[in-house]
């Protein structure tokens, strides 16, 4: 798993020596591990002898997601929200200081967003991420904020823990979060938090679209619908998973 994580996290395919430098494995052990991963289809070797993720991972991910009870519970709500707004709907789960996009229902417009299921994004500058952070208990929230590296993605990106805490207080008050072109220029969204009864699962959903087509006033008009959709998913999670989930 550590070797897979090294390859998956790299910005470009890695050669054996690159992986060796990033790992704590002896040369012989790492060579055997790489050979086994290639044999199982979890890694593949490119013509230049560098390594990239194998197609077997897509099969495993597909089977995992198809069997996810959270996806089954959320899916009809996501489709209904997309139908009501006409724009792209995202579902993402909080993992550390990032969110992982679990599902996406494309909008009806000709212009499509480049977001992909399985991609990760910083929690502090995305609508779904800030929404998810807002339902954490104070100690856990402080840990996540302290671990956050505030990078400037656009001119609107929050750049300090103080600014993030202020916005999270507003999200807790209103029940919705906004991404005002903070992660990508020209893209904004309105989002709401989702959590299982015992908060073992913390997530968010959003309606997202280009700023040239959707005014901020429209996002604010959708806030109640987004919040209600998230609450419906929470209610279904409690019914299906029970209070300990």
Structure description:
The chain is an alpha+beta fold. It has 2 domains: 2-60, Arc Repressor Mutant, subunit A, CATH 1.10.10.10; 67-241, 2-Layer Sandwich (Beta-Lactamase). The chain is built from 9 helices and 8 strands. It has helices at residues 2-9, 16-22, 27-39, 56-66, 69-85, 127-133, 138-147, 161-174, 216-241, and strands spanning 43-45, 51-53, 88-95, 98-105, 120-122, 177-180, 187-195, 202-210. It has a 6-stranded antiparallel sheet, with helices on both faces. It has a two-stranded antiparallel ribbon with strand order 1-2. The radius of gyration is 20 Å and the shape is globular. It starts with a helix and ends with a helix.
Summary, kept brief:
This protein has 245 residues and is α+β, with helices and mostly antiparallel strands.
